[in-house]
Structure formats: structure tokens, C-alpha cells
Write a structure and sequence with these properties.
Blueprint: E1 3-12, H1 18-26, E2 32-35, H2 42-51, E3 54-59, H3 75-87, H4 93-111, E4 117-120, H5 128-140, E5 152-153, H6 161-180, E6 187-190, H7 197-202, E7 207-213, H8 218-233
Parallel strand pairs: 1-2, 1-7, 2-3, 3-4, 5-6, 6-7
Helix pairs in contact: 1-2, 4-5, 5-6
């Protein structure tokens, strides 16, 4: 089995993300773009479609969590807010499923077609309370690529709270995933879970690895160029 990198740029539509992602897509440096459909403008949608890059919907619960488009809180504070709303019943699976269906329909309205793939902002679909809803919605819309990583989570960073939490949740969701077996990569990693890119690439396992990045961060945009060069050599 060969090594293959799937380079994905997240958060198209918010913060300062859209323009850096658009530049990378035009240069052919990303394979997929994750779109926050509530935040993307009609102009940005048209510009992204012209690049020919695969378009994934980046499902979110931002308004459910009362944050608007503000994303400046720490990981711990965002998690605390998330669990508070979950305990209050604001994030019932039925409501989440309805919201995600509505986001897909809004994507269809803005882009004129269904998304090529599905993932979620801050990986909220990994929480077991929502994972079944995520898989059901993907099946309903015949989505051809989903973010999971059938063989596991990668990263050479000594400790990162998001990676540790996601690895734990991945294990909880494995059995349900095996029942559905929707298309995904073999492995999943976020750029900020990598301390040493050269060490990471040397020890990259065989199979398809999805690499998630936020190109509004200059350091991550730079690393994407290295990843793309590596992918072209494989």
C-alpha cells in the first residue's frame, strides 16, 4: 500500500481564513476545502468553485453554543461551554441532525450542488452523542467522503489536549463506524499536532492520511507547501 496525503484546509468563510485558502486552492496546494456555509458569501463561494478543489461542508454548532462567530476562547473554555449547553439540553441529537441537514441544504443553495465531503468545526461530530447523527446525515445525502480516519489518529506532538480528546473519542466511535463503513481516510492528523514535520513524514504509515490545516496561520500555510511537495513525490 502506498502513502498518500489528503491535504484539507478548514474554516473557509470565517476569520481571515477565506483569502489564504483561496490562494492555496488556486495554486493546487490543497486537495479539499472545508466550508462553513453560514459564513461564506456568495462571492467567496463562486471564487472557490472556480478552483476545482473538492468542497466539503464543515458542519458546526456555533450558534447553538451562543458564540456567534467569535472563536477566540481557549480550548478548555470552549469545551466547558460545549458541555454546559449539552447538559442543558440545547444539543439534543435530534436538533443537531436537523441543523446539519439545514446546513447541507444551504450549501446546495449557495454552491448549486451537494458537498463532496463532510466534517465538522472543532471536530464536534466525534462526540458520541452526535456521531450517529453525523453518519446518518452522510448516508441520507450520499456523501462520498467523511472525516474519521478508519485506522486512527496520528501526530508526533508530546501532548495536545485536542489530539488526546479526539483519540479517546475515536476509540468510542469505532464500533459504530464499522457498522456504516462510509468513505474516509486511513488516518487523521491536524498540523498543530505535529512538532517535527520531517520526523512525522519519515514515520508516516502506508495508506491515506488526511492532514487538516488552518492556512490563516502563516506557519501552517508554509507547512502545507512541504506536505504538497512530499505528496507529489510519493
Amino acid at each position: 500500500m502506498e502513502k498518500q496525503l489528503i491535504i484539507v484546509a478548514d474554516d473557509y468563510g470565517i476569520r481571515e481564513a477565506s483569502m489564504p485558502i483561496l490562494h492555496l486552492a488556486r495554486e493546487g496546494l490543497v486537495d479539499r476545502v472545508a466550508v462553513l456555509v453560514h459564513f461564506v458569501s456568495a462571492e467567496d463561494a463562486q471564487a472557490l468553485m472556480k478552483t476545482g478543489v473538492a468542497l466539503d461542508i464543515h458542519l458546526e454548532l456555533i450558534h447553538f453554543l451562543g458564540r456567534g462567530d467569535y472563536e477566540g476562547d481557549s480550548t478548555v473554555k470552549r469545551l466547558g461551554n460545549f458541555f454546559w449547553h449539552m447538559m442543558c439540553g440545547d444539543l439534543a441529537p435530534r436538533l443537531v441532525k436537523e441543523e446539519w441537514r439545514a446546513q447541507i441544504e444551504l450549501f446546495r443553495e449557495k454552491f448549486g450542488r451537494l458537498p463532496d465531503g463532510m466534517n465538522s468545526h472543532e471536530h464536534v461530530h466525534f462526540f458520541p452523542l452526535f456521531f450517529s447523527a453525523f453518519l446518518q446525515v452522510a448516508e441520507e445525502y450520499s456523501i462520498t467522503y467523511t472525516r474519521f480516519g478508519s485506522r486512527g489518529i496520528l501526530g508526533d506532538v508530546r501532548f495536545h489536549p485536542a489530539k488526546s480528546i479526539l483519540s479517546f473519542l475515536h476509540g468510542l466511535n469505532r464500533n459504530l463506524w464499522r457498522e456504516k463503513l462510509l468513505p474516509t481516510s486511513d488516518y487523521l492528523v491536524s498540523v498543530d499536532w505535529i512538532d517535527n514535520i520531517h520526523h512525522f513524514l519519515r514515520h508516516l504509515p502506508e495508506g491515506r492520511t488526511e492532514i487538516v490545516a488552518h492556512p490563516e496561520r502563516p506557519s501552517e500555510a508554509k507547512l502545507l507547501r512541504i506536505f504538497k511537495k512530499t505528496a507529489e513525490k510519493e
